[in-house]
Amino acid sequence: MNVSALENAPDYAVRNCLAMYGISKPASKCQRLAAVLFDSAIASATVGIRGVADCQQVVLRAVDVDVHLRIGRKPRIILGQLLQRKANHFLVGIPVRLSLADQQIEATITDRLGEFRFGTAPAGEVRIFADLPSYRLSGDFTIQEEEIN
Q: Where does 31-143 sit in CATH, by number?
């Protein structure tokens, strides 16, 4: 009887299954807070820049990881990327969650470029979590209300 070698599932299929079914690696009990390094909503108000931007940009920084976020206005979605600064490479396959008032809104997992997307981004104070191999990163930031012109 001839048996063919089994092939591994493609990386994207594994990532999608992990995200869809909420399967994550055991989270570390160690948690590190990420501080807001840059927020375009605050920076533009401080400097006095006029006009309407098409998105809000936020950069969160932990000890060795940066989280870059781009928050679209219409529709309000979040595109993000995790980058490990010292090794200067993307963090792949990391579970990422978004919560508002301690209620999870959405969960996803980073792709091969460390990128992720949340299709729902409510206005207000939100928290992002990333379950890194050695610790859980968490950071708070504010999603601005849409301006009415």
A: 2.60.40.10
- What distance in Å separates the CA atoms of residue 73 and residue 24, rounded to the nearest whole number? 30
Tokens 């869809």: give the residue. Answer: 20
Query: What is the distance of C-alpha 107 from the center of its chain?
Result: 9
Q: Please tell me the chain's helix, strand, coil percentages from 3-state DSSP, rounded to the nearest 5.
A: 10, 45, 45
Q: What is the pTM of this model?
A: 0.74
Q: DSSP for 89-146?
A: EE--S-EEEEEETTEEEEEEE--TTSEEEES---SEEEEEEEE-SS-EEEEEEEEPPP
Q: What is the pLDDT of residues 29-50, one digit of tens each?
A: 677 788 899 888 786 555 555 5
